[in-house]
Amino acid sequence: MAERVVIAAGGTGGHIFPAQACADEFIRWGWRVSFVGVGRELERRVFPSRGDYHVVKARPLKGGGPRQKVLSLVAMLLAVKAALGLLRSLNPACVLGMGGYSSGPVILAAALLRVPRAIHEQNTVPGLANRLSAPFAQRIFVSFEETLKAFPASKTLLTGNPVREEVVQKAQRTGRGDTFTLFVMGGSQGARAINQAMAEALPHLRGSIEVIHQTGKDDPLWVQEAYRRHGVKATVFPFTEDVGSCYGRAHLVVSRAGALTLAELAVVGRASILIPYPFAADDHQRRNAEAFCRRGAALMIPQEDLTGEHLARRIKELMADEGLRRKMEERALQLGRPEAAREVVERSIELCEG
């Protein structure tokens, strides 16, 4: 019977889609995949198509006062107990934690059961779950060179962030048209600040431009109306899993600076204007964006400086300077690691082979 891997990931697309990419690679190796998440809607849509899906009722680890700390500790212990029962029933050969608050209890349970285990960190600044899991992990994969120093060198490898193969293939198959096309998105949950700034930028962007805009679930109707009112051709939707076709059509991307988005921008080679989410844990989105900007792969607008006029000015600068866009695309491609999923899976399987 084929070996089984348990992949623990949950919450947002930034954890879920790299987990999906790794699952696809494990399946190519002939392994069975079981997912452990926290019950979010996106997990329920994505994971069951690749393997069996289980929920561990984990919760975010938070600071706060003594009462909150006690509640977080109790929740963690209960989640570890649930994960122990689940791993005993599944009997995996390997456990891979992809970050998010479902990952920590599963990695700790795997350590208690002496199951081979690894974790993957997507961001430049490690999240709390992975910082707590790292002492129990036998191998640690990171996405950015800057992150290597955060973990013990003896067990840490720079692999990049796994990107779904379908994203790359669809981007390559979808050609760019003659009209300058802008892809605007705020991650899997959208971004109100970006939506608002883009609507305010429209009076400055009239002309030969088309927009693809992923708004998040709350904003598509009023954003669509803004484009109609200003006579700008736009395709507006709350969310799409076919992000590869959107990248393929785009001459420029405006987005948050989540680790998955940056990994996708790198492997498909797209110039971008990054607007980091200012309330991300440890300000990791700003650090992610800075890593790209240092290498000439993107421009950054901090949210505190974001206005419609400022955004429009940056967009028009890049519209007018094809040479700069090309250079940014080349620098992005240099950062891309299209083989990240394969390397994570191969190195994880090595743990099982002694």
Describe the fold and architecture.
- This protein has 14 helices and 13 strands.
- The radius of gyration is 21 Å and the shape is globular.
- It has helices at 13-28, 41-46, 66-90, 103-112, 128-133, 165-173, 192-201, 220-230, 243-249, 259-268, 284-294, 308-320, 322-335, 340-352, and strands spanning 4-8, 32-37, 52-55, 94-97, 117-121, 139-142, 156-158, 180-185, 209-214, 233-237, 252-255, 272-274, 298-300.
- It has 2 domains: 4-163 and 338-352, Rossmann fold, CATH 3.40.50; 166-335, 3-Layer(aba) Sandwich (Rossmann fold), CATH 3.40.50.2000.
Characteristics of this structure?
single chain; 354 residues; alpha/beta; Rossmann fold; six-stranded parallel sheet
Quick structural overview:
This protein is α/β, with parallel strands linked by helices and 354 residues long. The chain has helices at 13-28, 41-46, 66-90, 103-112, 128-133, 165-173, 192-201, 220-230, 243-249, 259-268, 284-294, 308-320, 322-335, 340-352, and strands spanning 4-8, 32-37, 52-55, 94-97, 117-121, 139-142, 156-158, 180-185, 209-214, 233-237, 252-255, 272-274, 298-300. Helix 6 (165-173) runs parallel beside helix 9 (243-249) and helix 10 (259-268) crosses helix 13 (322-335).
